[in-house]
Specification:
- The chain is mainly alpha-helical and about 290 residues long.
- The protein has one domain.
- Helices cover about 75% and strands about 0% of the residues.
- It contains twelve helices and two strands; from the N terminus they run αααααββααααααα.
- Strands 1-2 form a two-stranded antiparallel ribbon.
- Strand 1 and strand 2 form a beta hairpin.
- Helix 10 crosses helix 11 and helix 11 packs antiparallel against helix 12.
- The model has no long low-confidence stretch (mean pLDDT about 90).
Amino acid sequence: MIQTYLIHLFILIGIYIILTLSLNLTIGYSGLLNLGHVALFGIGAYTSTLLVMNGLPFLLSFLTAGILAAISGALLYGLTRKLKGDYLALATLGFSFVIYSIMLNWIDLTRGPLGIPGIPKPLIFGLTIQSTGVYLFFTFIITLISIGILTLITRSTFGRLLQAARDDEIGLRVLGKNTYALRYKSMAIAGFFAGIAGSIYAHYISYIDPSSFSLTNLIFLLTAVIVGGLASVRGSIIAPFILILIPEALRFIDMPSSILGPLRQIIYCLILLVILLYRPRGICGRIDLQ
């Protein structure tokens, strides 16, 4: 029983590592306070679910989920590219609410608040991933590939240009670089990985509804980025372990569920406050939170 429980936690950690890394690409490396990432996560989950349940192969649905989320991310930046700071944050947050409302109210497509049950497990090359142990291996492989690709991106010339645009956008434009194009690409890349994370999540849980992609999930992702540290791949890998495993340890404490639930939320807040007070840059952060 405990083994199945731990496998479940590590699958979730793998999914949130992909989400945290991709969000950090836009916030930490690009300097875009993007609060629409959870919407891209939801777009990927619903896209993959609907395509598979309408007869498309899993791998094609998986890639389409990432591509559609990437296009949505690029369009989101296209609509908000003239906004900065708090205004950008509010606009992208509004995008999250719009996507949430579509999921909630487009009942013919998403079944609204009832959600979509019975999502089939991935079928890859004729083999269905049924057991949680095999699904953990599948998630582990996708997570490793995502870490590798995003690490290469952040260390490449493109990644250095993103950081230059974050630190001195006007100076980079004087040198003849198109900062808008750089950020379009970063939002598209982040969206792609959010989309595939959504696909992995949907086919693992086998049920999705709009509440899976609400403000609560966004707060968790932002907390993971801040705790791990801005512009840090290593921090984005460590943070999901801390934020998932520490509160889960409370389940083994004998106390009423009416107390346990709020206590887990309090721990999230305390972790964030301690990090901000004693390590303002996060565990492995390279830049200050501004």
